[in-house]
Design goal:
heterodimer; A: about 350 residues; about 0% strand; B: about 300 residues; alpha/beta; Alpha-Beta Plaits; 6-stranded mixed β-sheet
């Protein structure tokens, strides 16, 4: 029988130990405060007047080709009434084109920010789990823990706890972002009344209806357990944090490899096919958030990720159980590669 | 109340190998309920391996272990309290949170775990330290906290690997009292120790493990069967030659210590000695565990050498 209460107890301990540290809050709140609150305030305070001048200059944008040719045609025909009636439309069109370009650019920056943020969080998870497993192993706590909890439950709890920690970080970033937006709104309204900002629209456009955001969130939540199980078992083999980091490097490099390959134009097969490489799925799909595959393929990728995560969990359980109490030095790439076959002999 | 006629733990042909190293060699044991049972043996004998197997953190290569009437340790994990030899703490955790955490891992609800943790902190007189971080505790206090974490679920079976190591005499007494208290409540305590005097005064039964084998096992009074005679005498060690029932003689100056085989009449041996030499002082004692320990370990080594 699966013991959820034990898994939750382990997860809660991991989470509460992290959030009880002032350093955690310094990291979780410090960066978004600088990015979303202090930086924009600084920009508006020191560059406010320049922003205002530049925003005035932006109003002078070239008219569209069709509008100009229509005016020229009517001018040639001396039809002044049509020209007069076209002028407001022309003005509206130019304003509208200008706003769309600005909106697209905002969306792109936002999308890149979201993707990088999730990738940053997933790399934090690797460090957190490595540290946690090594701490329990080196302090001999693991022996007393395993007398109460099965290794699999302990690993599940660690992965869940780390997810909770990253969701807490996410929550602080969203909250700080919203507070920062409100502050920006107040300052912008004072400095440049022509610029408007709707918090509700921001929430709807950038949080609730943002496909990249939800796609990243889905693949972050599904991909984190996978890498969590891998690094748990790698750390179980090692004795020190440095050793564990070195041993986990091949896996983290593989996990981050979509960064390199997705920016090379390989033509066929499509870039999202890289998502079928185990451990690369979540980064690939996050990076492709704006060019997602058609629904059947998308669903297949999700199912594939779940399936191989379960497989990795099974192998990780055996490796973790076998090595976590061992004090032998089994580091080295050769041993690492030989892990899975030898792991079948459970202690 | 538990049925004391049934064994609390049964090892049946339990064998454990680590590669080519045999850690346990067909161990057969029955540990009675409601007793203090001692695992004795030199370093690397297999005591910790046996303990790890019975708490379920290690699996035997072959054979079986039955704990609290169950062949599946997962079913009874919450009824076992385990204190390993090498003890660790979550340094950044508060003392009370640490104890509560282990309560929750052993199936207690949070409220109940907090209540029990506070009771234990009072019993161990560490209530002032409840909100301190574990890293601020001394070694002795840290061990007390670990023992509290072992006791929080009120276990029916306590497995304590070297519970007295690193403790000062005051804390040794605290731990002894707790062990005896638990046995009064019909719990079973299995402990390993290198301090033979502790085992002699605390254990109801012992097993001596050497090189993975149980070389001697049983209730303490049976294990200690056989006596020693200390004699201050004239002449040399040859006066003891051919004495029936004498296993060994240790002679220092004019004093000798004779180990007597169980079942032999000490009075008859003494009379024979009196007839052979002048005795200025004599003393008849039971064999100490320490002597038995040394004798059995030495005997195993001799047997291994002749094999």
């Amino acid at each position: 029988m699966y013991k959820w209460a034990l898994v939750w107890a382990v997860a809660h301990r991991e989470w509460s130990e992290a959030v009880s540290s002032p350093l955690f809050w310094l990291g979780a709140l410090g960066l978004p405060l600088i990015l979303f609150v202090l930086l924009p305030i600084g920009l508006f305070l020191f560059l406010g007047s320049q922003v205002k001048d530049e925003s005035g200059a932006l109003d002078v944008v070239p008219p569209t080709e069709s509008d100009v040719s229509s005016i020229v045609t009517h001018l040639n025909q001396q039809d002044t009434s049509v020209v007069e009636s076209s002028l407001p439309t022309l003005q509206n069109n130019t304003r509208s084109t200008h706003n769309e370009t600005e909106f697209d650019s905002d969306i792109y920056s936002y999308f890149m920010f979201v993707v990088l943020f999730f990738i940053f969080l997933q790399s934090i998870i690797v460090s957190l789990i490595l540290l946690s497993v090594i701490q329990e192993k080196s302090s001999k706590l693991i022996e007393v823990l395993l007398a109460s909890v099965k290794p699999l439950h302990l690993m599940d709890g660690k992965v869940l706890g780390t997810l909770l920690i990253t969701f807490t970080v996410m929550g602080t970033w969203v909250a700080t972002g919203l507070v920062g937006s409100l502050i920006n709104l107040a300052i912008t309204a004072q400095m440049d009344p022509s610029r408007t900002f709707s918090l509700l629209q921001f929430i709807v456009d950038y949080l609730l209806l943002s496909v990249p955001l939800w796609n990243c969130l889905l693949f972050f939540a599904l991909g984190t357990p996978c890498i969590g199980y891998v690094v748990s078992s790698v750390a179980a083999v090692c004795r020190t944090n440095v050793e564990a980091r070195i041993m986990s490097m091949p896996f983290t490099v593989l996990m981050a490899s979509p960064f390199i390959f997705l920016f090379i134009d390989i033509g066929n097969p499509p870039p999202w096919s890289y998502a079928f490489v185990p451990l690369c799925t979540s980064f690939t799909m996050m990076l492709l958030s704006e060019h997602l595959p058609a629904f059947p393929w998308y669903l297949l990728i999700v199912l594939w990720l779940i399936l191989y995560t379960l497989g990795i969990r099974w192998i990780a359980d055996r490796t973790y159980s076998k090595y976590i109490l061992s004090e032998d030095n089994v580091s080295g790439f050769k041993k690492l590669v030989g892990l899975a076959p030898s792991a079948s002999k459970k202690m | 109340m538990n049925d004391n006629t049934k064994a609390c733990v049964t090892f049946e042909n339990t064998h454990k190998k680590f590669g080519s190293l045999v850690a346990l060699d067909c161990l057969n044991l029955q540990i009675p309920r409601g007793s203090v049972y001692g695992f004795l043996g030199p370093n690397g004998a297999g005591k910790t391996t046996a303990m790890r197997i019975l708490v379920g953190i290690s699996k035997p290569t072959s054979g079986s272990v039955q704990v609290l009437d169950s062949n599946n340790i997962d079913d009874v994990r919450h009824l076992i309290g385990y204190l390993p030899e090498e003890k660790g703490l979550y340094k950044r955790m508060r003392v009370i949170d640490y104890i509560v955490y282990f309560g929750r891992l052993n199936g207690l609800a949070k409220k109940e775990a907090v209540k029990r943790a506070n009771q234990l902190l009072n019993e161990f007189q560490l209530e002032e330290w409840a909100k301190e971080k574990c890293q601020s505790l001394s070694k002795g206090m840290g061990q007390k906290v670990q023992l509290m974490a072992t006791l929080i679920n009120d276990p029916q079976l306590m497995v304590l690997d070297e519970p007295f190591s690193g403790l000062d005499p005051v804390n040794v007494e605290v731990v002894r009292t707790i062990i005896l208290e638990k046995v009064k409540q019909n719990s079973t305590v299995i402990l390993s120790t290198h301090i033979m005097e502790q085992a002699e005064t605390l254990c109801d039964a012992v097993v001596l493990i050497n090189k993975g084998k149980a070389v001697l096992e049983g209730p303490l009074n049976e294990v200690r069967k056989g006596d020693t005679i200390s004699v201050d005498h004239e002449g040399d060690v040859s006066v003891f030659d051919g004495l029936p029932g004498v296993i060994s003689v240790k002679q220092v100056g004019h004093s000798a210590v004779l180990s007597i085989e169980p079942g032999h009449d000490t009075q008859a041996i003494l009379q024979t000695i009196f007839s052979r030499t002048k005795v200025s002082q004599f003393n008849a004692n039971s064999v100490s565990l320490h002597e038995i320990f040394l004798r059995e370990v030495k005997q195993t080594e001799v047997e291994d050498a002749t094999d």
